[in-house]
Amino acid sequence: MKKKTVTYKKILVIEDNHAILDVITLILQSESYKVNGLNKSVDMMMHINESRPDLIILDIMLPDGDGRTLLKEIRTNPATENIPVLMISAKYTAQNIQHGEYKPNGFLPKPFDIDDLLDRIEGILAGKTY
Predict the structure, then answer these.
(1) Residue 65: strand pairing partners
(2) I want to staple 106 with a disulfide (CB 3.0 to 4.6 A). Which of 23, 40, 72, 130 is the partner?
(3) What pLDDT, in 10s, does the model give residues 4-30?
(4) How far is residue 5's CA from residue 127's CA, in Å, rounded to a whole number?
(5) How far apart are CA 105 and CA 31, in angstroms?
(6) Local structure of 101: helix, strand or coil
(7) Domains defined along the chain, listed by start
């Protein structure tokens, strides 16, 4: 009998609020995702290049940067330009967010419903844009 190989999707969460980061991490791990978390953007690109995530969840308001600037950094780097990004924010809503030139694959205002988060992640990993 051949053993089935399960590949877990890797998700990088960049969120400065430790409570939110912990909750997202626990929820995603319970859904069999491999999760890494960063609470600031300083080593983000190095971390992305080392861990090669399948999806990045990126907060807009970080203590050392703006998530939209980080999104531009991800999108303009040939090694990371195709990694899907789900942006989250407590300050902005889908109506008032100004993404600029580079768009994320999805956006979710905080506080968000756990099922909405999981639906967005599954959809984005399946190739959808929200």
Answers:
(1) 62
(2) 130
(3) 666 799 999 999 999 999 999 999 999
(4) 22
(5) 20
(6) coil
(7) 10-125 (3.40.50.2300)
Please report, for residues 26, 30, 46, 119, the alpha-carbon distance to residue 82 in angstroms, rounded to integers and kept in the order given. Answer: 26, 26, 16, 20
Closest by Cα among 25, 55, 71 to 125: 55
Angle at 44 between CA 40 and CA 45, to 5 degrees: 160
Nearest-10 Cα torsion for 44, 92, 63, 129? 0
Distance CA 79, CA 46 (A): 11
Predicted local distance difference test score (pLDDT) of residue 98: 72
Share of the chain above pLDDT 90, in %: 83
pLDDT at 82 over 70: yes
